[in-house]
Amino acid sequence: MVSSSHEAMHRIFHHDSEMLGRTFHALGLSLPTPDTVSVISGDVTEIRPMERRIDTLLRCETAEGEAYLVLVESQRGVDEDKRYTWTYYLAYLADKYRLPVLLLVICHDRRVATWAAQPFKHGAGAWAALTLRAVVVGPHNVPAILDEEAARDYVPLAVLSALTHAKDADIGAILKTLASALKAMDDPEEAYDLAELTGIGLGDTPADEIWRQMMALDTSFYRSSFSRQLRAEGRAEGHAEGRAEGAAEGRAASLRRVLDIRGIAITEEHGGRLSGCTDLDQLDAWLDRALTATSASEVFDVG
């Protein structure tokens, strides 16, 4: 099953038409700069049994009228079978669309990026009938964006930088720069979307917890998408328990998590009120206050 973090690694290229061109330029690649980019179906299943689905397939057209396809794949580990799958994808798409096809592989691990960048030759003996070469985007060639001005210049590329450097030692500084750039964006909804995409793309890594803490401390972000996410997690826990008190326990756990991340200590009395509360509306009200409060009293002692 494809994970949400896997999904986010390639969905950044859905964001707008500039993303591919900016990435090509940042990597110093001599590739046609797309003037328009559109997402097309990545279903390459044939009539018979095996389902095959590309992560993201983009059709690019240059100002001069040249068209080509970019097959975008997220790769989180070394998988020799994937080379055969990619070869199939490229051949199938070239035959179906009669257009040049480029394979773009996104990694956030240097070892995986090195593996993916190696040419894959398929043939008999010394004769290579087919040679697969991917453009690989990863921590080895995507710059670690630590300059706030550079991050603000094009925030999606700063997001890509964070995703590809998720395992780097300086990921905290990279994420801090990205958070600052997101906060400076004119469109708050776009900033929220990119913030969520970053969190999803970081996956189950220490960087994800760093990002969550940053977003929790910046209440303008946390009040929006992250508060909805916490409520959803609380509801899910309640459904799993299958009873009303389970839903309340889920809400209470979300509230404790916000308080802990924001560094707000609660008294024994507040803890008792929280543990004994089964009123979902009251728990939601406390959660909303916790997103901006500076003390436990501002959360629990407001009339």
UniProtKB/TrEMBL annotation:
<protein>
    <recommendedName>
        <fullName>Transposase (putative) YhgA-like domain-containing protein</fullName>
    </recommendedName>
</protein>
